[in-house]
Amino acid sequence: MQSLQVTIMIPTYNQESYLAEAIESCLAQD
User: Fold this and answer.
1) How far, in Å, are 1, 13, 14, 16, 28 from residue 8 at the CA level?
2) pLDDT of residue 15
3) How many CB atoms lie within 10 A of CB 11?
4) Would you say 12 and 19 are in contact if contact means Cβ atoms under 8 Å apart?
5) CA atoms within 13 A on the CB side of 28
6) pLDDT of 10 higher than 90
């Protein structure tokens, strides 16, 4: 079985404080 590759884009403008939280949220999803 081939591994699945996914691209996640998180558009943000002057919102660096939320970027880490957004990445963690994406990684936590099943």
Assistant:
1) 22, 16, 19, 17, 13
2) 85
3) 5
4) yes
5) 6
6) no
Question: What distance in Å separates the CA atoms of residue 2 and residue 30, rounded to the nearest whole number?
Answer: 18
Mean pLDDT of 16-26: 88
In terms of pTM, does the model score above 0.70? no
Number of domains the chain contains: 1
Boundaries of domain holding 22: 1-30
Spatial separation of the C-alpha atoms in residues 15 and 12, rounded to whole Å: 6
Q: How far apart are CA 18 and CA 30, in angstroms?
A: 21
